[in-house]
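User: My advisor asked me to double-check a structure prediction for Olfactory receptor before group meeting. I don't want to rely on an old file, so could you generate it fresh from this sequence?
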Amino acid sequence: MARINESVVSEFVLLGLSDSWDLQLFFFAIFSMVYVTSVLGNLMIIVIISSDSHLNSPMYFLLSNLSFIDICQSNFATPKMLVDFFVEKKTISFEGCMAQIFLLHSFVGSEMMLLVAMAYDRCIAICKPLHYSTIMNRRLCIIFVFISWAVGILHSVSHLAFTVDLPFCGPNEVDSFFCDLPLVIELACMDTYEMEIMTLTNSGLISLGCFLALIISYVIILITVWRRSSSGSSKALSTLTAHIIVVILFFGPCIYFYIWPFSRLSVDKFLSVFYTVCTPMLNPIIYSLRNEDVKSAVRRLRNRHVNWKN
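Assistant: Sure, here is a fresh prediction for Olfactory receptor from the sequence you gave:
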């Protein structure tokens, strides 16, 4: 009721990436290719893993779920951004704005937890290879996926529960291409300092907790690999490198935004693009290029397709 009584804002105006028509056409061409590559690339990983019996392992089960989250993240704001390049006044309804905030934080929170689960999987595979199949069974993998989604949704709901009832009584311009939570909070007609601290604490705790868990896992793995010298360890290290690259690309912008969440620079808008639009595309590229099992599965799938046509 608080929002109905106090808020007179029924829609928000998204300022987008640029006012220049030429730049908007350029961005449309670039981000259209990125979007299509991201969705098709992650979809390809899901199809390959589900259709190839050689990839019936916990690591690839978690990887296919990571690809599913990336497909979801690619679609929460990017299609509207592409359409808005051809719209003079870029608006989004209040409900649509809240939905974007909910979806973004759900997907990001879920991906953080899933990356931790994948690091744990690699830690068991390298440090306790003889017990790997016993510990990392399908039941535990399903539990990991369920927990990742549950944490992501709870993390998002905790943000939305306070945001949806804020009094928005006038300013409604969001200097981004989607409803970014800190930018939306700043538009409220009240002192938002406590709300900003609560948002920073909420997001910071889950980000810092996941990041520390990943660092600890990778340190344990690297120490274990360093003590061994075998082809199996080399292969494990190669797989681990792909995980580390994904984590750096995912947490780098995330940590930046949480260090300076409510002070915006011109570069922040383009970091937001990289974080929300480009990162989902990089996961299939990195895992496909660095993982011999995935590349072999692609070749087998292509050969089956050629033989079927013949």
